[in-house]
């Protein structure tokens, strides 16, 4: 049975086709939209390609700054890659316009500080994204650039790219790499705070959600007082995390950063298979059906199953209809704030309260394209 599940997992995750790689912008071409992404990574550099690979880096993380061109001719949520062996097109393809290696944490901190200082004091916010299982460095970089653009992340965007092997059958190895990557993630968050970020929002996808929780737990145990006060919110997108483990982590953390939002979908096929791989037929946090399991925690669970297509594993960043709704969140802060009475009517769907937790079941707006 386990072999059958592993094969199904491989087929599901490999169905996306050829893997994306970094492609430089052709000389003389002017990009339309460029997103800057600061990077901290515990990946080693692949000696054959010169690009961060899936090896585990010992010691301090590597740091860099990437400028990514966002093509105008694409649907919201899409990442479009140049055809293999074909000519890249800035109108249709994600491309890299500039790469600046940053020699160590002090250089990273100084460069990030300059970017933050260029913003008004009230806008010195950093969104830190960490990816999930089976991701290459290029895929994680272009994904956070796409999300930063489509969801209109405020302030500065930072990627923490942990050493996923980028192979569908390396699930267990990637889970170990998440544990390996905790210290590097904590160091990155410390550098972001030291650079002058007034607010830090952490976005973790899939196994990146598990990494986020493990790191926050570790920081709480260490008694951190520098970074935690600056964490202005946590978003877990389709978190690949055992519900009981999440609950135990949350109790260890203590008061969770607010807002603390968990995007779930019972139609997430990747998480359904991940649950089978754990050896028991139980849900993961990202396809939670019964919100009462986290009712004693101050969290907001957003059910986006109505928008799910394909594997349904990153709906919040890939569904055009959902992106249009979520891009309004900045204008309707009450939807995820302390005033629960103000949430009704602000988002299309249903709002329910279970003790300390809030459940929001989003539904498509009639007439909107998905």
Task: Explain what you see.
- This protein has 370 residues and is α/β, with parallel strands linked by helices.
- The chain has one domain: 3-Layer(aba) Sandwich (Rossmann fold).
- It contains 10 helices and 13 strands.
- The strands form 2 sheets. An 11-stranded mixed beta sheet has the order 5-4-1-7-6-8-9-10-11-13-12, with helices on both faces. Strands 2-3 form a two-stranded antiparallel sheet.
- Helix 4 (171-180) packs parallel to helix 6 (207-222), helix 5 packs across helix 6 and helix 6 (207-222) runs parallel beside helix 7 (243-253).
- The chain is globular and about 60 Å long.
- The relative contact order is 0.11.
- Residues 1-16, 330-335, 338-346 and 366-370 have low confidence and may be disordered.
Sequence-ordered SSE layout with sheet pairings:
Layout: H1 2-14, E1 33-41, E2 43-45, E3 52-56, E4 62-70, E5 95-102, H2 105-117, E6 125-130, H3 137-150, E7 156-161, H4 171-180, H5 182-194, E8 199-205, H6 207-222, E9 231-237, H7 243-253, E10 260-264, H8 269-277, E11 300-303, H9 315-318, H10 320-326, E12 349-354, E13 357-362
Parallel strand pairs: 1-7, 6-7, 6-8, 8-9, 9-10, 10-11, 11-13
Antiparallel strand pairs: 1-4, 2-3, 4-5, 12-13
Helix pairs in contact: 1-8, 2-5, 4-6, 5-6, 6-7
Q: For the CA atoms, what is the radius of gyration?
A: 20 Å
By CATH reckoning, the class would read Alpha Beta
Q: Number of helical segments?
A: 10
The level of helicity is 25-40%
CATH topology: Rossmann fold
Q: What's the CATH architecture?
A: 3-Layer(aba) Sandwich
- Strand fraction: 15-25%
Number of domains: 1
């Amino acid at each position: 049975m386990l072999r059958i599940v592993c094969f199904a997992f491989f087929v599901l995750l490999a169905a996306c086709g050829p893997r994306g790689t970094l492609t430089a912008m052709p000389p003389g071409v002017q990009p339309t939209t460029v997103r800057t992404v600061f990077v901290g990574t515990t990946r080693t550099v692949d000696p054959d390609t010169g690009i961060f690979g899936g090896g585990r880096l010992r010691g301090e993380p590597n740091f860099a700054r990437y400028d990514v061109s966002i093509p105008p001719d694409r649907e919201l949520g899409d990442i479009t890659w140049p055809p293999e062996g074909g000519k890249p097109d800035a109108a249709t393809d994600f491309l890299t316009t500039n790469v600046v290696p940053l020699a160590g944490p002090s250089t990273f901190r100084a460069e990030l500080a300059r970017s933050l200082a260029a913003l008004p004091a009230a806008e010195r916010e950093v969104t830190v994204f960490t990816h999930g299982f089976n991701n290459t460095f290029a895929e994680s970089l272009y994904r956070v650039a796409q999300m930063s653009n489509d969801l209109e992340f405020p302030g500065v965007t930072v990627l923490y790219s942990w050493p996923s092997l980028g192979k569908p059958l390396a699930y267990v190895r990637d889970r170990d790499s998440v544990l390996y990557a905790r210290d590097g993630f904590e160091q990155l968050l410390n550098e972001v705070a030291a650079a002058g970020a007034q607010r830090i929002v952490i976005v973790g996808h899939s196994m990146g959600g598990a990494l986020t929780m493990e790191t926050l737990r570790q920081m709480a145990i260490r008694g951190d007082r520098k970074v935690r006060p600056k964490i202005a919110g946590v978003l877990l997108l389709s978190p690949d995390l055992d519900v009981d483990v999440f609950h135990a982590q949350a109790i260890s953390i203590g008061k969770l950063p607010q807002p603390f939002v968990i995007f779930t979908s019972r139609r997430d096929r990747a998480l359904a298979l991940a649950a089978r791989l754990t050896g028991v037929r139980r849900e993961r946090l990202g396809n939670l059906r019964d919100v009462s399991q986290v009712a004693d925690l101050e969290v907001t669970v957003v059910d986006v199953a109505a928008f799910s297509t394909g594997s349904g594993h990153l709906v919040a960043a890939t569904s055009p209809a959902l992106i249009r709704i979520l891009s309004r969140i900045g204008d309707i802060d009450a939807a995820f704030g302390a005033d629960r009475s103000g949430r009704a009517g602000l988002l299309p769907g249903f709002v329910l309260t279970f003790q300390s937790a809030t459940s929001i079941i989003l539904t498509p707006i009639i007439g909107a394209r998905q």
